[in-house]
Amino acid sequence: MKHYYTVGMAGHIDHGKTTLTKALTNIDTDRLKEEKERAISIEPGYAPLQLGEEMEVSIIDVPGHEKFIRQMIAGVAGIDLVLLIVAADEGVMPQTAEHLDILNLLGIHQGLIVVTKSSLIDDDMKELVELDIQDQVEGTFFEEAPLHFVDSVDGVGIEELKTTIKETLIDLPARDARGAFRLPVDQVFTVHGQGTVIRGTVYEGKVREGDHLEVLPARKQVRARQLQVHHQKQEEGRAGQRVAINLGGINKEDIARGDVLVSTQYYSTTTTVDISLDTVKALQFPLKQRGYVKLHLGTAEVYGKIVFFDRNELSEEGGEGILCQLRLDNPVVTKRGDRFILRRPTPVETIGGGEVIDPAGGKYKFGMNTVHMLEKKREGTPEDRITDALREHKLITVPKAAKETGIEEEEAENIIESMVTDGTVLRQGDKAVLVNVFDELTELLEEALKVEQEKHPLREGKDRAVLLQEFPQFGKELTSLVIEQGVQQGIFKKAGAFIATGDFVPGFPDKWAKRMKQVVETIIDQGMEVEQEGFIFERAGLPEDYKQELKHFLIRTEQVIQLDEKHMISKEAFLNAIHTLREETGDTFTLQDAKSVLGLSRKYLVPFMEALDSTGYTKRQDDVRKWV
Fold first, then answer.
1. pTM, whole model, 2 decimals?
2. pLDDT tens track for 268-321
3. Please, are residues 184 and 300 in contact by the beta-carbon 8 Å criterion?
4. Domain extent for 473
5. Are 49 and 27 in contact (CB under 8 A)?
6. For the chain, how many structural domains are there in total?
7. Are residues 199 and 246 in the same domain?
8. Which of 151, 152, 146, 120 is nearest to 133 (CA)?
9. 262, 290, 320 — which closes off a domain?
């Protein structure tokens, strides 16, 4: 199975990140005119790194200039491995140190150190550079990281670096594509003839061409019309992939960097977030209670106030695990466990970062009681952990839920039963599912069926096998359970291999009903000697797509009988001919007898007689037919 990873590059301006990216991928990620003119990266650049069939890797070249720190944070959010780039002739710069802080605070734990422009220094200088770097990264996740000296122009050390990147990624767990789809948007643009396109790294779950999605926080409904991964058309995008999605139903002006594209109502927006905050080693200035801050979360950048419950000021010494709250000016999309960065708007500096404890924080009183409550919330109650497991796996057995959460099986059973009692969980055999997940999938299935029924009103519904594939984030087993229960409740109905909404009756679409009735009336009027169906359809002016649909509908509803591949006759004419033939013949009859009775030419008579055999009215024995 192929795994998907994102590799970021971070470092000071002009330390060779873009040149190294080109050496690794043969792609120049400086795409903007301003970047070419000023020789610096303003927006994150992206390129595919070829490391073998078993993995798909995207490289993000994030800006290094201090003024572009916002884009840098947006670039590294969601990466699996980071390359810390240091130029051999300059060493670790102050901006590099800030990048180190940000990477640590975002919870990134895997990194490699790359010294570029190594041909500019001799072996003695290499030793000094290495010692300087080791001193600077002490206490960070780069402390034990492999260090490579490369020259991106001459290609020295590039293949060795590729090998290390591959070996490091192989040992990393792949991102989980089972969760609900979430993609923070970092680029929005238009393509002539196609409309609005967004780009971003898929944080969680999967997205398929044709999926109905939602843009948060604006709650705009859109559809994924086309997907591309590094300019290659794909049917599906998965967690860890860098994806471009052509969206239907939205203008470029209605979506922006920082918005989040989701596939489920599981995600919500919030302006009050409980957090655990770790600060940088030393703040330049103290941070006052309700001080103004800038939150960087995924690709979003939102201003707000910080509220402390155990202090009135955060001193320059900072701290770790400070339990506090953000009250934001604008809504964000987040969930428990998401990482973030806080910066001070003025004077500008990175304050710290940490993780979201509760995306739906309340208004709490100042004091240690609130701090203790937040401590418990940070640890997570057994119910919280069971709920998280149910959200992730959608349908799960009690033993698996217990194993996933580290809770004793008996306690897990009791918790789930309690949740069943209070109406938040459904038991389906030996498995459990959250009611809101079950209801959400029911709504999604209804919506998918209505779209299908509107598009193909003459069909009996949507093929069940296709429907089971349509929502992979929920899994086939849960989708099948929801369908079966929906059928029992009358929400859905079955017709052979097809599923439809409970109130759906196949029929002529309003726009073409008059012309379709004209087809039926023509077939009835022409009796047994009907002209070719193609001529009838053509004269009625039906669209090509509807011709076969109408034919199958009329046959399925027994309004017509298919005589041969080019002729249909009305069921009424067919039965009348049978009645007349029975009246005028004995137990057996020949083709000539039928011709004498019905007066039909061989063109119509032969397929009519064959239809008698195939429908079970007669049984042929040589040239004689016997009524059954």
1. 0.60
2. 789 999 999 999 887 888 999 999 999 999 888 999 999 999 999 998 888 889
3. yes
4. 393-506
5. no
6. 5
7. yes
8. 146
9. 262
